[in-house]
Amino acid sequence: MNALSLIWANLFRKKVRTFLTLFSILVAFLLFTLLRTVAGAFGGDIDIAGVDRLQVSPKYSIIDLMPVTHMNEMRQLEGVEEVVHSTWFGGNYQGVNNFFPKFPVQPRAYFEMYPEFVIDPAQLDEFERNRLGAVAPQLLADNFGWQVGDRIPIEGDIWMQDDGSRLWEFELVGTYTSTNEDNAFNGFLINFDYFEEARPDQTEGLVGWFIVRVTNPDEAAEVAAQIDELFENSMSPTRSATEAEALRQFANQVGDIGLMMNGILSAVFFTILLLTANTMTQAFRERVPELAVLKTLGFTDLSVASIVLAESLLLCILGGAMGIGIAVVVSNAISPQIATFAGSFNLETTTILAGFAIAALLGVVVGLSPAISARRLQIVEALRK
Amino acid sequence: MAIVELSNVAKKFTKGKEVVEVLDQIDLEVEDGDFLALMGPSGSGKTTLLNLIGGIDQPTAGSIKVAGQELNGLSSKKLAKWRSENIGFIFQFYNLLPVLNAQRNVELPLLLTKLSGKQRQNNAAVALEIVGLADRAKHKPGELSGGQQQRVAIARAIVADPKILVCDEPTGDLDRDTADEILSLLELLNTEHGKTIIMVTHDPKAATHAKHTLHLDKGRLVQEVA
Ligand SMILES: Nc1ncnc2c1ncn2[C@@H]1O[C@H](COP(=O)(O)OP(=O)(O)OP(=O)(O)O)[C@@H](O)[C@H]1O
Ligand SMILES: [Mg+2]
Predict the structure, then answer these.
(1) Do A201 and A216 touch, CB atoms closer than 8 A?
(2) A86-124 exposure pattern, b = at least 16 Cβ within 10 A, e = fewer
(3) CA A179, CA A118: separation in Å to the nearest integer?
(4) DSSP 3-state assignment of B226?
(5) Same domain flag for A319 and A263
(6) Helices vs. strands in chain A: H and E counts, helices first
(7) How do the residues of chain B divide into helix, strand and coil, expressed in percent and rounded to 5?
(8) In terms of CA atoms, which chain B residue is nearest residue A384?
(9) Which domain holds residue B174?
(10) Per-residue pLDDT tens for A268-278?
(11) In whole angstroms, how far apart are CA B118 and each of A1, A158, B128?
(12) How far off is chain B from A4, nearest CA to CA, in Å?
């Protein structure tokens, strides 16, 4: 026997009571772990860095094209920091079943607009230099087994070449990844210069949409309105979607969910605190003469207090560990289904660690007062009872 | 040689304005190897005196020297360590831990020693052997008779090999025959194992097992019977 087995034996003195308390703690920590994870899946990963961008599309139909010269006019507006353009390329790679979006873009400017996209600088240089160059998201390249240097044939549907040929051929000069899970997959990026040169002359100077970075994300809505106003009476009026506003609203909603969950969890933990404190207080009261006996045998005040505190810690950490453990099993089981519609549903290590920290804290809070009473316990008085 | 020396010991309890003088002017010497019975009417202060000797209570005045140690002024921590090394306690109601089996109850005081787990187990088994309960090692107190529980308590009291056993009405809760067995066991510990025993009892027959008897009345030692 050692001190731990003494504490263990004491813990299970009243088995039903201990199991009920353990079960309540278990449920609380199961809830905690799952709710935290759900909150994470709903937007723990929202990257607020992206909220300084606006999308400027043709007002009436997204398949309309707009003059690239809009860019220069927008740059004159106060609050506009940078503008890039993009166009829907369409086209098929090896039949119609291999869909992925393809955009002709200005290589360097585009990557500067999306700092979350990470590309090797040498590959970006090559993309800019090589007119036939194209870069693909790493995921896409992996999917098709492309290597840098491969020729990627695309059969045009919207766009054909000036000479009437439908076959476009690009050279894969690089791949990129994203640091933002919510914007992990963009498109197969084509060098705009080549596209511009090769497409029919009558479409030259026309692009699909613009991406605008505003100086101050808080004024994104105003800038969007100004842009639309600027082009209202032109040949190509625009509709600026305030990506910032949309994201902020989403973030606010997630914030509300977070707040709600924190509210629920606080209530749950408060209840658990009272319940466990009650259990420990009862357990302590019943044991006053026994603790006095321990002191009589020569256990110091401090060691008797430690035994009481350790019992409370053990109870809370045991219950917490079981709850967290079940949450791990549950989330592993349901993660694949949830991931398809809610993005990622991953139980984070930090959530698990936080759970254990809270369990330990609960144990200390609940055990402290009985431990102090145990420490103060006078042998003779306790034995007279 | 005296193993217990009390000189001019007094003990008062104060509750609010009320002061109860429980012990007064107690002078007492107990020789090493003695078996002393302490008798007296209820409320005369027997338990209080025993608690002072056992170092679980402090006197209001006077000096108490036990096993060569002046107890006055020892910190609670030092006193605890001293008790674990020098005193074995035996109570009327056994005071075993109900969640632990006999073996583990006996092992409990050894948790305070540097003995290895194996040695602790061995020593506990030997102590249980001495009190004749080796076959009940795995039983919890609730599964044992009163006499058996008291034997476990005695095993617990002797397992760390203290010099002195203090017993507060060790047979008070037992029938005549069982009481005699327990008293014989204490006698054996006194004669064969050299334990100095101080035993509070109400029972004159129990006192006959002791070498000496002292009477306490209204907080004073009144006479000694050989
Ligand atoms: N902690 C205390 N506070 C107040 N009074 C106390 C306390 N402990 C003991 N007393 C009083 O001291 C007196 C002696 O008590 P003690 O327990 O020593 O008597 P006793 O001789 O052992 O009696 P019994 O034979 O009934 O066990 C009693 O009057 C008791 O009420
Ligand atoms: Mg008494």
Answers:
(1) no
(2) bbbbebbbeeeeeebebbbbbbebbbebbebbebeeebb
(3) 7
(4) coil
(5) yes
(6) 13, 12
(7) 35, 30, 35
(8) B47
(9) 33-59+75-225
(10) 899 999 999 99
(11) 9, 85, 15
(12) 11
Which CATH number does the domain housing residue B197 bear? 3.40.50.300
Mean pLDDT of A8-20: 90
A187 versus B165: which is more confidently predicted?
B165
Closest listed ligand to the CA of B48: 1
Structure confidence at residue B226 as a pLDDT band (50, 70, 90) = very low
> pLDDT tens, A168-212?
999 999 999 888 765 555 689 999 999 999 999 889 999 999 999
Element housing B3 (H / E): strand B2-15
| ipTM greater than cut 0.85 | yes
Interchain contact, B81 vs A5, CB within 8 Å = no
Final residue in a domain of this structure, among A207, A233, A252 = A252
* Same domain flag for A165 and A212: yes
A204, A303: one domain: no
**What's the whole-number average pLDDT of chain A?**
87
Identify whether residues A206 and A81 lie together within a single domain.
yes
Q: Mean pLDDT over residues A146-166, rounded?
A: 91
Tell me which chain A residues have a C-beta less than 8 angstroms from the C-beta of B81.
Answer: 298, 300
Q: Are A236 and A64 spatial neighbours (Cβ–Cβ below 8 Å)?
A: yes
pTM of the predicted model over 0.95: no
Instruction: Choose one of A252, A272, A292: the last residue of a domain.
Output: A252
Measured in angstroms, how far is the CA atom of residue A177 from the centroid of ligand 1?
Answer: 82
Query: Which token pair is A98?
Result: 């291999």
- Provide the β-strand partners of residue B26: B9
Residue A341: pLDDT band (50, 70, 90) is very low
Q: Are the beta carbons of A170 and A209 closer than 8 angstroms?
A: no
Q: Are A144 and A88 in contact (CB under 8 A)?
A: no
Residues A248 and A277 in one domain: no
The closest of A120, A124, A141, A238 to A186, measured between CA atoms, is: A141
The answer as to whether B9 is a domain residue is no
Inside any domain, residue B149:
yes
When pLDDT is averaged across residues A328-345 and rounded to a whole number, the result is 63
Q: What total number of domains does chain B contain? A: 1
CB nearest B107 (choices: A1, A295, A299): A1
Residues A93 and A138 in one domain: yes
Q: A134 and A93 in one domain?
A: yes
- Six-digit token string for B28: 């007492």
Asked if residue B151 belongs to a domain, the reply is yes
Split at pLDDT 50, 70, 90, the class of A45 is very low
- What's the rounded Cα separation, in Å, for the pair A74 and A105? 18
Count: domains in chain A:
2
Portion of chain A with pLDDT greater than 70, in percent: 88
Range of the domain at A356: 3-45+256-384
Q: What is the largest CA-CA distance in chain B?
A: 53
